[in-house]
Amino acid sequence: MVLALKDKWVWDSWYVRSDDLWHCFFLQAPRSIGDPEQRHWHVSYGHATSRDLTNWRYLGTCFEPSKGPAWDDYTVWTGSVIKEDDGTWHLFYTGTSREGDGKHQKLGHAVSNDLHTWQRIGSGLILDRDDRYEEYEDGRWHDRAFRDPWVIRDPQGDGWLMYFTARNARVADSQAAGAIGFATSKDLYEWTLQDPVFTGGFGELEVPQVFEHGGRWYCLFCTAARFWTPAAKSLIGTPMTGSHYLIGEDPRGPWHVASGPMLDGAEVGARYAARIVNDGGTMKLMGFLMEHPDTGEFRGVIDDPADIFITTDHRLSLTETV
């Protein structure tokens, strides 16, 4: 395995390159808690570096929940890192509070000059839901989905675009309310919430990653087999857990789910929360491994990079010819 820690489980990760060094940020939790399902409530950020995306040097913990009481004093979950023109690194992250029992996700912001020591901007909080985005309601969904921010430069101007995991409050069918949330900013500090850029197909579209290739836009996401709608099944095939993607002509949409086959999925033991990393023109898929298909034991390690290819009909594939 590429990144495995003896005393910690590792899961969602994201990557940036500074000069010739890759930096990996990831969710981690101590194996000593015993139950891997409890890892979400004992979470911090790990940091590792590599020159080849295969051999990693673990640098320890770089970010943790706030000391309470605070909006992010319970968990800090998946985020992304981007560099501003002045050299400042910006972390956008998910937080929840103990007061809210971890059910009410919000989005935060911190900065760094060295990619390891992070300072929250004020309280850190930058975005919360409005009535376009679903609130937590006991019995409808297991949480208020408002997480996993992914930030890119606006290709049509001087500002920035943010995508995140959300649920559309205007959709009655709970299983079809999964959405890609959207926000915009002129300066990375002040953000304006916008309508979701995509809704449908799945109850959740987790860990979105938006990028352009060959004049087309792609939005990678992950989801579980139990969250597929009938429409997704008819378009892609047999429900599996793993990563798939949306395709669009513009980063603001419209977006549509790519027809099958699923990019990277499995019935058991899937690679999950994957990211596509562009390594000198070669695209690599990197994600963590869930339960072992034979033993059912949660593995909690980041898998070896897998090559990603673009087919002649502009689809993403793990095989060079399809």
Please name the CATH architecture.
5 Propeller
| CATH class identity | Mainly Beta
The CATH homologous superfamily is termed Glycosyl hydrolase domain, family 43
Number of domains: 1
**Shape estimate:** globular
List keywords for this structure.
322 residues, mainly beta, Tachylectin-2, Chain A, five-stranded antiparallel β-sheet, 1 helix, 2% helix
Could you please describe the fold and organization of this structure?
This protein has one helix spanning 230-236; strands spanning 8-18, 21-30, 44-50, 57-63, 75-83, 89-96, 106-112, 119-127, 146-153, 160-167, 178-185, 191-199, 206-213, 216-223, 241-248, 255-257, 264-266, 271-279, 282-291, 298-302, 306-310, 316-317. The chain has 322 residues and is mainly β. The protein has one domain (8-317): Tachylectin-2, Chain A (5 Propeller), CATH 2.115.10. The strands form 5 sheets. Strands 13, 14, 15, 16 and 17 form a 5-stranded antiparallel β-sheet that branches. Strands 18, 19, 20, 21 and 22 form a 5-stranded antiparallel β-sheet that branches. The protein has a 4-stranded antiparallel β-sheet with strand order 1-2-3-4, with no helix packed on it. A hairpin with a 6-residue loop joins strand 7 and strand 8. It is globular, with a radius of gyration of 18 Å.
